UniProtKB/TrEMBL annotation:
This is DUF6510 family protein. It holds the Pfam family DUF6510.
Amino acid sequence: MPHDPAAFRLDGNALAGPLAPVFALDPTTALRVCPACRMQATVGELHVYGPEPGLTARCPGCSQLALRAVQQPGHLWLQLGTGQGAFRFTLPAAGG
């Protein structure tokens, strides 16, 4: 019987449990390995430029893009690395 990959496919909600503890942590302590120069640095050690139109963090070894964070009313856009996609997070309402 042929293997059906769709039989094992889940939707993105399957990531909620595994990712919940990660997003509750202090992000500045997360270790990143640069794909360009292989330097290991925590997020807190990245070189950050901004604030407008958002914050751009670069590798302290070679200046390759590590992440971009752009905050808009009610949302935070997060791009990791040099990929083409970005994540949009809905922020809690002010005062709530």
